[in-house]
Amino acid sequence: MTEQTGLAATEATEATVQTVETRGGDGAKPEGAVVRDALGVGVAVGLSGFAFGVTSAGSGLGLLQTCALSLLVFTGASQFALVGALAAGGNPFTAAAGAFFLGVRNAFYGLRLSQLLALPRAVRPFAAQWVIDETTAVALAQPTRRAARIGFTVTGLSLYVLWNLTTLLGALGAEAIGDTGAWGLDAAGPAVFLALLAPMLRTTAERAVAGIAVVLGLGLLPVLPAGVPVLVAAVAAPVVLWAEGRRRADDRPDGQGKTDDRRDGGEAGESEEGEEGGEGR
Amino acid sequence: MNVWIAIGVTAVGCYAVKLIGLLVPEGVLERPLVQRLAALLPVALLAALTAQQTFADGHVLVLDARAAGLAAAAVALLLRAPFLLVVAAAVVVTAGVRALTG
Description:
Chain A has 281 residues and is an all-alpha fold. Chain A is 69% helix and 0% strand.
């Protein structure tokens, strides 16, 4: 499940992972191929640090603050969420809470990776910073432990270096531009979130969660302090899980949301734009 | 100062979560319910964030050029465009709509 989410999130992030996935099952894989796949993912995603740098500077954060985020936090969605909440005038702890909850998924990636990579204890604190969607997806796609280690390291290193470099360039660029709004750069943040979200909307449960979260997030916005509605919207996840459990208990042995064909991107568009109508499904 | 506090708290929290995953013994996070919740939590947060950053201006809900930009991103996603192209589509369309509507 977590692995699916990881792969899904990465699929959204770049098409490169398809190369990683399609080659699967050829047993021993030459190291060159592992490095190539890993670099493909690292470079493609690393470049999107540019979007973060621009968004962060456009939200009013300083150059040093923007770069500190990419160096220290290094998990994209959380960084975007934090600068968005700060720009909206949220208090620092509320903003940090939203970013933190988004980062929680990395704990589950770490769990998978610690079994897969079997890292020495002394190395773990250093490897931890690179435990994110993309490194997990590349590592899980490898046939052997050695290949997984190479994949994790090369993806992590290339992504970390590029992400931070392009963050700096993006922030500098935004400062040079001045009014980022006139260039439509304030749409970069939500577009990033949508791209991450789209492949996660495979099942009815996931779509219900997204729909309820949208309604809560927008509905409570006028009445609650900035940053709080997003945290309240997170309640959609346990609520839907609880409802699912209830339904299953009501004698539907196959009450699972069935994974259907891959038209999910379409529903993503729908459920986002169907705000005014409430939850589309 | 407030921004630095937020950065510090987020950095520590996000790193701690990553490290816990690597250090925690097997079985603690293995319960299916915990796994399901962990998978659904990002869905809720991302959906709420997408909606807010598209339709909110402070405490007011608005419909402006960003909505057109997000629609363009959705179309790009449908066409399986690469990530950067999805973001670029949103930016370009938003800027275009702003330029046209002043």
